[in-house]
Write a structure and sequence with these properties.
Elements: E1 5-8, H1 18-24, E2 31-39, E3 45-56, E4 62-67, H2 79-89, E5 92-99, E6 104-116, E7 124-134, E8 141-149, E9 154-156, E10 166-169, H3 175-186, H4 188-204, H5 210-220, H6 232-247, H7 259-273, H8 285-292, H9 294-310
Antiparallel strand pairs: 1-5, 2-3, 3-4, 5-6, 6-7, 7-8, 8-9, 8-10
Helix pairs in contact: 2-3, 4-7, 5-9, 6-7, 7-9, 8-9
Length: 312
């Protein structure tokens, strides 16, 4: 199994440009398309039409097999787009890594200012811009906003109707056009974070009863039968969230028993407790899940369910 890599840097020491970040996080390589051959019964090589191999050019490692219409987007091709936003908010590239041998890569930009929860001296939410791209045809290039609640290091996304959260660029022949068009859309990332600040403080102002929390858990864990008939694993997961709701990291008298605490208990569960496929063998499995997988989907759904139960 290929060992994944991931690095983090302090904000004060982190690079401020995309290309410098690629160097800092060992992502400054390129990919290319190669023909694929097969051997016939006599051992003669014949090219397979309609398919190509995506290879890392620094190691010549094959990353995937793709169709004839697939176009590579180099790691550095989004540099000018992301840098345009980063310079505007004085951000730094504090985190980066890859999945597998480079089938997917990601970097995260942290904004210098944070979101503060009203009524709390310590609760702080960091603002991030996350860049993810793939070289195996499984996902487009995604550039979007995300957050981390510093108190418990819960990372999350918010599904906000008021603000577009990400830009997706598919690996097809007109990817260059979409990359250019994306410059205008990326400016909305700043407004996303402004909406997050409004949303978390709105949640903190709404009381959330035990009955409302039970309803939330049943919706989140898709409970179709009474609680006493649920599988033991499901009950254990629900009880873990309940414990976070009452005594989770950063939960105190300023936010206990609120819709904010309910939502945070679910994100804490997704970030720290939720079972992730291959997590025992792959140290990056949870990171991938929270960025682009089931963990991200769970956190997005959590906000929607909490708002629904709270009547927001």
């Amino acid at each position: 199994m290929l060992i994944p890599t991931r690095k983090e840097m302090k904000f004060s020491e982190a690079p401020s440009t995309f290309n410098d970040a690629l160097l800092a996080y060992d992502l400054s390589w390129e990919v290319g398309l190669r023909p694929i051959f097969t051997a016939d019964k006599d051992g003669q090589l014949k090219q397979i039409n309609g398919y190509r191999s995506v290879n890392r050019l620094d190691t010549d490692s094959p990353l995937s097999v793709v169709g004839s219409k697939y176009e590579v987007v180099q790691n550095n091709r989004c540099a000018d787009i992301v840098d345009e936003v980063v310079k505007g908010v004085n951000g730094k590239y504090v985190n980066g890594g890859l999945f597998g041998n480079g089938e997917k890569i990601f970097m995260q930009v942290m904004f210098p200012n944070s979101i503060r929860l009203r009524g709390s001296k310590d609760d702080e939410i960091k603002k991030y811009l996350t860049f993810v791209t793939s070289h195996d045809g499984t996902s487009p290039t995604v550039i979007g906003a995300s957050n981390v609640r510093v108190f418990c290091l819960n990372s999350f996304l918010m599904c906000l109707k008021e603000a577009r959260r990400d830009v997706r660029i598919r690996h097809t022949s007109n990817a260059e056009v979409r990359l250019t068009d994306a410059k205008d859309i990326l400016q909305t990332m700043v407004s996303y974070h402004a909406q997050v600040e409004v949303k978390v403080n709105q949640l903190a102002a709404v009381r959330f009863t035990d009955a409302m929390m039970n309803e939330t858990l049943r919706k989140m864990f898709d409970a179709k039968v009474p609680n006493h008939e649920l599988p033991t694993r499901t009950l254990n997961n629900m009880n873990t969230v309940l414990e976070h709701f009452a005594n989770g990291r950063g939960i105190d008298q300023s936010n206990r028993g609120t819709a904010y605490a309910a939502w945070n208990s679910l994100t804490e569960y997704a970030n720290w407790d939720k079972v992730v496929k291959n997590q025992k063998d792959d140290p990056m499995a949870r990171t991938e899940s929270l960025l682009i997988g089931s963990g991200a989907e769970f956190n997005l759904r959590a906000l929607s369910v909490v708002e629904q139960v709270a009547g927001l």
